[in-house]
Design brief:
The chain is mainly α. It has 7 helices and no strands. The protein folds into 2 domains: 87 residues, Hypothetical Protein Yqey, Chain: A, domain1 (Orthogonal Bundle), CATH 1.10.1510; 52 residues, Arc Repressor Mutant, subunit A (Orthogonal Bundle). Helix 3 runs antiparallel to helix 4. 23% of the residues are buried.
């Protein structure tokens, strides 16, 4: 396997070995799930094609999003005992994501996107969200961007 030494998959495999040696079962479990998700996507590509950095980040983001959704459901069901393990999985997955932007930085990008697109109201939300998500790939969550765009275009 001629993987890029800087790829997320390579980093995850290295970290899996470290987790095994230190007997960190919780981290190891999360890393195995991330590796499986990456390998699954890789098998859908042509034989010699590697995953792009954007594709790898997207896989990890989807994983973290599923964990956040699970936390919401567990809280609704009063299963706080399961919330901690899901939060731990998010922490492990976050190690492989780019540094997230703060709300102030997101607001600045939204204002710039509104100026570029000439967005005037809520009907232009899609244009603004698309531009911001494209520029800040992997650094923002769609739900946060949507909420802030709605807030800025309404106010």
């Amino acid at each position: 396997m001629n993987e890029n030494p800087n790829s997320l998959l390579t980093r995850i495999q290295t970290d899996m070995a470290t987790a095994m040696k230190s007997r960190d079962a919780a981290t190891l479990s999360t890393l195995r799930m991330l590796k499986t998700a990456l390998m699954e996507l890789k098998t859908q590509k042509a034989k010699d094609m590697a995953l792009s950095a954007d594709e790898e980040i997207e896989v990890v983001q989807r994983y973290a999003k599923k964990r956040r959704e699970a936390i919401e459901e567990f809280r609704k069901l009063g299963r706080d005992d399961l919330v901690a393990s899901e939060e731990r999985e998010i922490e492990v997955a976050a190690r492989y994501l780019p540094k997230a932007l703060g709300e102030d930085e997101i607001r600045e990008r939204i204002r710039a996107a509104v100026a570029k697109t000439g967005a005037a109201g809520p009907k232009d939300m899609g244009k603004v969200i698309g531009m911001v998500m494209g520029e800040a790939k992997g650094q923002v969550e769609g739900g946060t961007v949507s909420r802030l765009v709605k807030e800025i275009l309404a106010g």
